[in-house]
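Researcher: Structure for this, please.
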Amino acid sequence: MAVQEQKAESSLGRYIAEVRSVWGDGKDPQLPFKVTALMEKLFAATSPDDPWMAELMRDGKPSRELYRDPELGFIQMGHIHKQGHGNKPHDHGPCWVVYGSFKGITEITKYKRTDDGSKEGHAVIEKDRLDRLTPGVVVPYLRGDIHSTNAVEGPGVVFRFLSYDLDKIERYRYNMEKETMTKA
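Model: Predicted structure, token format:
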């Protein structure tokens, strides 16, 4: 059975219902923080033995869509990251994202852009902060936040909530050494 088909009585089903209930028009600037609190609540209410979580962990797929809201457009992803899995600095364009760790440790580096943005394809970024996501820790990244991830202890079970489908928006990847940015 697909994870999205799980009954609303599961902790995942309750979480999705709660996200839908706070969504409104999707423009509330506090929404990323509300979803963060709801994901923390989800993790506290979920056991590795819960059928939907056990299925996610057993399958071990690097990336899996757990829920896509057909009306509101948000997407809840589940990831199983082996130790050492990571990605390069990138943004999510006009979207925001919430990352949370259910198992393992993932470090997320947030960057700030220090150039003026006037030269196309050119971007100077520097490290701004390091977030260490241990089990139960959830952190929002807002519109335009540049970040990279690294699974330092795994396999990790990482949740990634997307405010919108990333395949439908313009976003960028960044190369610190070459000081470039390219469309993702």
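Researcher: Any notable elements?
Model: The first helix runs from residue 11 to 23. The two ends are 32 Å apart (CA to CA).
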